[in-house]
């Protein structure tokens, strides 16, 4: 039986001004006020979406946000509790869905919410503005009173007192001025010429200026703008041009490339110390290398990889070490697991580390033994995707996991040690996770859920990764999520969004080096700019002992180097 072929709808070009005129004519009483407002909103939405679709810069995500609003995966938003005020019990495992009228363990009726009022959150002190203490690098300039001084008589009429300096802190005035990210100074060196022999004598530049055109601070600033803030070279060039300082993109690349060679020892030391981490987080995101030759691809392929692999990724790795977190980036045809295997090749510690990632097989570090943990929010997200189709079942899962996350947040807030955190999860989270495991098993055993449905697939994923998802309740220090690694990958994603690609594999390696140094410094709450400048100004010393110039201890090495230089300058000549 043949189907009648439907004719495509006839396209009609209607200017948005004509639609607005039609809406205006409905104000005469043809439509009630509420319906007229609805019609106006629909026409405005149509105009906005049409304008976005006609733009060459729009994306599907942007159109979805315009039409449906900004999505949120918070439990209250997914379940609609923000409107109803519903909230589950916080000190007992959430009960699975049950029939109306049944009673959950502990006497609480299932399907009902705790109606106790939420405690009011305390407002943060302050007004949200930055005070003088938030500018540690700003110079402090003492300003004396123009007309009065200590010991003067009080100028108030009828007062016979004397003025005394106050012991309390002086009044503070913060003055923020605009400066160029890269500034230039022109030194006019006097030249003298002998009238007889013709020899020209040129004045020496001031001490510390150097002879190179771009100093260490210029390289650090360009790298920070490019790889730390996501500004492409051509945007930096436009910014500097607006400030009357020519700085072509090609010149910027030459500056950061030369600086990267000087920073290689510190970058290599980060990888060495990351290999000894107790917990390793890894993940990757797609990237693009514009001029990726076959020779370069073959060279960059990890051992055992297929020669026809075409994908390019930026892998992010965060290692929890005795000195604090270390962030590493690597861009190329390797997956996150292959990058992790390359780092673990340097490991000397006998105990296998804890490895946190999502459930993808490409995140496994090959044959290296690890205690594998999986990201619980990744498993949770699969339930969020089917919340509309299975509201009761998803509500039980999300409320159960919400209490587990709250327990982990409580452990972080109290600063518990790994053993104490493990004990807390065993006391509070283990019963909840056991109830969730029993509920998932009953869904398939009682045939209440179709295995191939969206809910069935979410349950199957969680069951298949259950041991890795619940490692946090068996091993001290095992994380519950991979959020820290996903956050560092935002630097690579920001670069991809703004610069679109790396031009060559060498450019990708330079970007990985700077991103690793910059983000590790940020994880230690160290100023990346100051750190990059210091490493460049002490290249020889850093190369001899790079472990003494890491973000967590470089200030001590800098103090020793400056003291040694001062002693050498004061020493009498031989």
In a nutshell, what does this entry contain?
This protein has 574 residues and is an alpha/beta fold.
Biggest sheet: strand arrangement: 5-4-3-6-7
Task: Report how far the terminal alpha carbons are from each other.
Answer: 108 Å
Helix and strand succession?
HHHHHEEHHHEHEEHEEHHHHHHHHHH
Low-confidence stretches: 84-93, 99-115
Shape: globular
Structural class: alpha/beta
Largest sheet: 5 strands, mixed
Number of DSSP-assigned strands:
7
Please compute the radius of gyration using only Cα atoms: 32 Å
Features:
two-stranded antiparallel sheet, alpha/beta, 7% strand, five-stranded mixed beta sheet, 574 residues
Model description:
This protein has 574 residues and is of the alpha/beta class. The chain has 20 helices and seven strands. 28% of the residues are buried. The chain has helices at residues 16-25, 33-54, 60-68, 75-79, 81-84, 216-228, 233-242, 249-274, 294-300, 336-344, 376-384, 391-414, 418-445, 454-464, 466-469, 483-499, 505-523, 528-537, 539-544, 554-570; strands at 191-193, 200-202, 279-286, 313-321, 324-332, 354-357, 371-374.
């Amino acid at each position: 039986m043949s189907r009648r072929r439907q004719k495509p709808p006839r396209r009609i070009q209607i200017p948005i001004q004509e639609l607005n005129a039609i809406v205006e004519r409905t104000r005469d009483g043809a439509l009630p006020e509420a319906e007229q407002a609805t019609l106006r909103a629909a026409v405005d939405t149509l105009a906005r979406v049409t304008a976005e679709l006609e733009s060459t810069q729009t994306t599907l995500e942007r159109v979805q946000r315009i039409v449906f609003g900004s999505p949120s995966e918070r439990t209250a938003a997914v379940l609609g509790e923000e409107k109803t005020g519903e909230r589950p019990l916080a000190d007992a495992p959430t009960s699975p869905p049950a029939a109306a009228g049944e009673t959950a363990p502990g006497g609480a009726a299932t399907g009902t919410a705790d109606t106790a009022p939420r405690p009011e959150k305390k407002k943060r002190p302050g007004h949200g503005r930055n005070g003088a203490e938030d500018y540690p690098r700003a110079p402090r300039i003492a300003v004396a009173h123009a007309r009065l001084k200590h010991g003067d008589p009080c100028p108030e009429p009828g007062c016979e007192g004397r003025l005394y300096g106050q012991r309390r802190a002086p009044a503070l005035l913060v003055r923020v001025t605009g400066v160029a990210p890269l500034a230039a100074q022109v030194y006019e060196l006097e030249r003298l010429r002998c009238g007889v022999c013709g020899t020209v004598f040129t004045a020496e530049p001031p001490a510390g200026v150097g002879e190179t055109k771009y100093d260490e601070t210029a390289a650090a600033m360009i790298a920070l703008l490019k790889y730390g803030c996501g500004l492409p070279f051509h945007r930096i060039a436009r910014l500097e041009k607006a400030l009357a300082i020519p700085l072509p993109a090609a010149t910027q690349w030459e500056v950061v490339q030369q600086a990267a060679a000087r920073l290689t020892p510190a970058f290599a030391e980060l990888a060495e110390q990351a290999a000894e981490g107790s917990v390793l987080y890894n993940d990757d995101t797609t990237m693009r290398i514009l001029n990726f030759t076959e020779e370069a691809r073959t060279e960059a392929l990890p051992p055992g990889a297929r020669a026809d692999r075409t994908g390019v990724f930026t892998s992010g790795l965060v290692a929890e070490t005795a000195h604090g977190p270390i962030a590493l980036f690597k861009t190329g045809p390797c997956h996150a697991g292959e990058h992790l295997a390359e780092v673990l090749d340097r490991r000397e510690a006998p105990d296998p580390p804890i490895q946190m990632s999502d459930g993808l097989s490409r995140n496994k570090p090959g044959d290296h033994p690890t205690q594998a943990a999986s990201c619980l929010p990744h498993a949770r997200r699969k339930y969020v995707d089917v919340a509309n189709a299975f509201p009761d079942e998803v509500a039980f899962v999300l409320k159960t996991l919400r209490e587990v996350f709250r327990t982990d947040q409580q452990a972080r807030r109290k600063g518990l040690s790994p053993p104490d955190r493990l004990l807390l999860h065993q006391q509070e989270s283990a019963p909840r996770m056991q109830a969730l495991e029993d509920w998932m098993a009953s869904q398939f055993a009682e045939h209440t859920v179709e295995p191939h449905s969206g809910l069935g697939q979410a349950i199957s994923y969680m069951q298949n990764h259950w041991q890795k998802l619940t490692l946090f309740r068996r091993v001290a220090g095992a994380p519950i999520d991979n959020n820290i690694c996903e956050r560092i990958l935002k630097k690579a994603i920001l670069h991809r969004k703004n610069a679109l690609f790396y031009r060559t594999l060498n450019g990708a390696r330079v970007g990985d080096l700077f991103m690793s140094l910059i983000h590790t410094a940020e994880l230690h709450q160290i100023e990346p700019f100051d750190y990059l400048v210091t490493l460049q100004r002490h290249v020889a010393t850093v190369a001899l002992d790079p472990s003494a110039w890491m973000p967590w201890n470089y200030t001590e090495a800098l103090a020793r180097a400056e003291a040694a230089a001062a002693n050498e300058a004061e020493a009498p000549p031989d």
